[in-house]
Each structure stands twice: as structure tokens, then as C-alpha cells.
Design the sequence.
């Protein structure tokens, strides 16, 4: 079974600074997707970034980028130029790619609460 | 605008009562999902549906039931068999099982 671990329950960062959120996962699958979702106080889950395991290049979306280390099973999220609106819970998630059961099942970590301070 | 609509936003259940949570999407997505979120936890999959008239159990399906009679709709019934139903419920959809999932705003269910 796959597991996702986020070892930082809470973090804080000053506005305009850079912060990195950690995520590790455990799987025997070779083909999978990894995601970071953001959940602001409104509770809606918002997709931040996605990484396909077969791609060596790290995904980037504006101020958000990942450091994907497949051998180490590590998938960290870097937020540059932090903004007050980045304050939220951040969830790392894993999804198996391919058929044979459990397809489409997102496995979530417990989340990291990020506070951006003015 | 395309999106996922969950209703109601807040729901209260009496002991022994079944309640149904609504989820509607106008994104023309084939796949739909229901997740449960407990305080301090990530989301856990209850049920998912790849296509109309088909659905599969997720990790915590006991005490829940679903139907998928229309592509746009995937209601979740929390039955009296679910002994600890108090939680935040999120519905999601995706183009297929391998596309990113988009979420609704959620329904908070509480026990009276």
C-alpha cells in the first residue's frame, strides 16, 4: 500500500521570502503521479502542481516549483516570493498510474499548515 | 462558469437517519469522487465512479452509498450504519481517472 508522509505539521514564513514544504512517499509502483494541493480557510481544495514520475524535469507553476527525487521518494514544494494569500493547508498526494485497481485513488498526507506573516 | 457544486454547505443528522449530500458538475468530466476529511487529517476516498452507472468502493466505503445515474451528478448517502459521520465531505471530478481532480467547496456534516 502507498503512504504519504508530511513531517512538518506547521510552518511559517515572512512575506516575500521562500519556503520549502517536505513530502516523502512509499510505493512499489514505478509509474505514478504526485500532486500538491492547497486548502485555504475556505476549505476548497485547489491543485497547485502536478508531477509525472516518468519525467525527470521538475514541474514549475509560476512561484511554485517542486524538487522531485524519485530514488529517495521525496517530493518537496518550494514557494518563492511568499504572499499572504498563500496561507493555507498544503497537502501532498500520490496517485498510481495504470490499471489493476485503485486507479484514480489519491492518497493524501496529513498536511502542513503554512502561515505567511506580513 | 464550469465547476462543481456541493449542497448543502452544512448538514445535520439525527441518530438513525440517512442523509444525502449532493454533488453536481458541469465540466463534462467522466470520473467523480467522494472524499472524507477529518480534523488534522488528509482526505480519504469513500467511493469513485469512472462512468455513468458504474462506481467502485474506496478505502472507507462502509456506511455510505452512492449512485451515478447521470454524468453530471454523484450523490452520496450517509446511512445510519455509519457510526461516526461527523466530518467534512468533498466531492471531486476529473476528465478520466488519470487527470487532475477538481474539487467542490465541501459539505460539513454534524450529528444532532
Sequence:
Amino acid at each position: 500500500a502507498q503512504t504519504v508522509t508530511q513531517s512538518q505539521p506547521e510552518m511559517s514564513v515572512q512575506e516575500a521570502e521562500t519556503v520549502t514544504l517536505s513530502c516523502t512517499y512509499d510505493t512499489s509502483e514505478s509509474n505514478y503521479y504526485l500532486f500538491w494541493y492547497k486548502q485555504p480557510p475556505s476549505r476548497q481544495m485547489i491543485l497547485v502542481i502536478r508531477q509525472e514520475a516518468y519525467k525527470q524535469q521538475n514541474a514549475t507553476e509560476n512561484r511554485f516549483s517542486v524538487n522531485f527525487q524519485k530514488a529517495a521518494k521525496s517530493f518537496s514544494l518550494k514557494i518563492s516570493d511568499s504572499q499572504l494569500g498563500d496561507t493555507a493547508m498544503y497537502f501532498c498526494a500520490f496517485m498510481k498510474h495504470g490499471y489493476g485497481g485503485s486507479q484514480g485513488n489519491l492518497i493524501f498526507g496529513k498536511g502542513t499548515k503554512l502561515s505567511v506573516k506580513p | 462558469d464550469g465547476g462543481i457544486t456541493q449542497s448543502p454547505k452544512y448538514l445535520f443528522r439525527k441518530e438513525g437517519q440517512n442523509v444525502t449530500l449532493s454533488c453536481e458538475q458541469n465540466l463534462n468530466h467522466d470520473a467523480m469522487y467522494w472524499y472524507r476529511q477529518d480534523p488534522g487529517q488528509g482526505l480519504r476516498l469513500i467511493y469513485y465512479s469512472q462512468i455513468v452507472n458504474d462506481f467502485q468502493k474506496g478505502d472507507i466505503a462502509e456506511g455510505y452509498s452512492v449512485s451515478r445515474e447521470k454524468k453530471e451528478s454523484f450523490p452520496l448517502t450517509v446511512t445510519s450504519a455509519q457510526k461516526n459521520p461527523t466530518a467534512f465531505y468533498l466531492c471531486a471530478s476529473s476528465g478520466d481517472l488519470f487527470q487532475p481532480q477538481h474539487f467542490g467547496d465541501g459539505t460539513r456534516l454534524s450529528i444532532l
User: Anything to note?
Assistant: Chain B touches chain A at residues 31, 33, 35, 40-45, 48, 50, 58-59, 88, 90, 92, 94, 97-98, 100-106 (CB under 8 Å). The two ends of chain B are 35 Å apart (CA to CA). The first strand of chain B starts at residue 4 and ends at 7. Chain B has a mean pLDDT of 92.
